[in-house]
């Protein structure tokens, strides 16, 4: 079908077949019998060079553990153009690097009036990138096996992590097999009154993504996709998803966040509990220590692509 489509297009337009995709807008794609790797090594190297950090001492993690910064700072003002350019470049790098998603989202909160302490964190992220240029995502061929397509999602949240407005940060990661296909780390729009509420709001957003992904996969593959499984490490939030009776604890929560209840009742999403140490979305909600961060980076599927190619 693909060959027939190409042939018909060539009759109408002047075009050539370049073969398998290898490069597209900074994304480097390598397709082999073992699987597909996606990275942005050349683009990342240009970011490091533009920041004047070529040959710098690389950092082991994109942010210091438990780092907190405020929009109100006593440090001198930084060059806003330089700051925004660096953050914008890092945001595009997140397309293949979920390990820096939280850190990049964090520094993006200070775009309006960046200070030198904010810029120092941006340079810290770039120094981390300089030491992990060859890292990216690898998707193994036939990873799903004979059991069909199964989406597994991870939803997590910190609680009141932003010291300026006390809003929480949601983290979401969906995987096919062991490989991440979509992720995000973003500050919630409302102030949560408890850890349970923050986790519930994050889970509702993840449920929307899970339902949409399942529908997209059915359309692309023409196969039945298993019900997405959403892993949450907060038991109270899981109870709130499954039991609409908790009126006193949830009556103040905006209606749109109760979407996950409807999904659970109709069987569109299965909610499952997971231990905090196995919560892969944890790296998308807070800055972690070096050892824990590197462990989580490996577990969410960000690998050194050179090693994959040799294997």
Descriptive key words:
single chain, 311 residues, alpha+beta, Nucleotidyltransferase, domain 5, 2 domains, five-stranded mixed sheet, 10 strands
What's a quick, concise take on this entry?
This protein is α+β, with helices and mostly antiparallel strands and 311 residues long. It has 11 helices and 10 strands. A hairpin with a 2-residue loop joins strand 6 and strand 7 (179-187).
Indicate the overall shape: globular
Radius of gyration: 21 Å
Q: What is the makeup of the main sheet?
A: 5 strands, antiparallel
Helix content: 25-40%
Number of helices: 11
- Please give the order of strands in the largest beta sheet: 1-2-3-4-10
Provide the succession of SSEs.
HEEEHHHHEEEEHEHHHEHEH
Unreliable stretches, pLDDT < 50, 5 or more residues? Answer: none
The CATH architecture of the largest domain would be: 2-Layer Sandwich
Q: Which structural class matches the secondary elements?
A: alpha+beta
What is the name of the CATH topology of the largest domain? Nucleotidyltransferase, domain 5
General description of the model:
This protein has 311 residues and is of the alpha+beta class. It has 2 domains: 98 residues, no CATH class; 128 residues, Nucleotidyltransferase, domain 5 (2-Layer Sandwich), CATH 3.30.420.10. 38% of the residues lie in helices and 17% in strands. Strand 6 and strand 7 form a beta hairpin. Helix 2 runs antiparallel to helix 3 and helix 2 runs antiparallel to helix 5. The longest helix is centred in the last third of the chain and has 27 residues. 35% of the residues are buried.
């Amino acid at each position: 079908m693909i060959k027939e489509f190409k042939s018909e297009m060539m009759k109408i337009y002047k075009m050539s077949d370049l073969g398998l995709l290898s490069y597209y807008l900074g994304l480097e794609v390598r397709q082999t019998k073992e699987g597909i790797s996606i990275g942005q090594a050349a683009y990342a190297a240009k970011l490091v060079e533009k920041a004047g950090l070529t040959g710098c001492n690389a950092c082991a993690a994109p942010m210091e553990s438990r780092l907190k910064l405020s929009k109100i700072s006593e440090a001198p003002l930084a060059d806003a153009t330089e700051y925004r350019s660096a953050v914008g470049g890092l945001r595009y790098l997140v397309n293949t690097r979920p390990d820096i998603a939280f850190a990049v989202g964090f520094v993006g909160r200070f775009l309006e009036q960046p200070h030198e302490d904010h810029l120092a964190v941006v340079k810290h992220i770039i120094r981390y990138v300089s030491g992990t240029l060859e890292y990216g995502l690898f998707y193994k061929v036939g990873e799903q096996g004979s059991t069909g397509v199964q989406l597994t999602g991870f939803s997590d949240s910190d609680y009141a992590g932003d010291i300026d407005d006390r809003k929480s940060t949601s983290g979401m990661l969906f995987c096919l097999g062991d490989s991440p296909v979509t992720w995000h780390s973003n500050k919630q729009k409302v102030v949560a009154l408890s850890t349970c509420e923050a986790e519930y709001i994050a889970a509702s957003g993840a449920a929307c993504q899970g339902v949409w992904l399942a529908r997209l996969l059915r359309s692309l593959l023409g196969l039945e996709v298993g019900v997405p499984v959403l892993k949450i490490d907060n038991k109270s939030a899981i109870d709130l998803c499954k039991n609409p009776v908790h009126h006193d604890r949830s009556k103040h929560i905006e209606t749109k966040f109760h979407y996950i209840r409807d999904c659970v009742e109709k069987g569109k999403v299965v909610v499952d509990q997971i231990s905090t140490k196995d919560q892969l979305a944890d790296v998308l909600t807070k800055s972690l220590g070096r050892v824990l961060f590197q462990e989580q980076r490996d577990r969410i599927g960000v690998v050194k692509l050179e090693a994959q190619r040799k294997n």
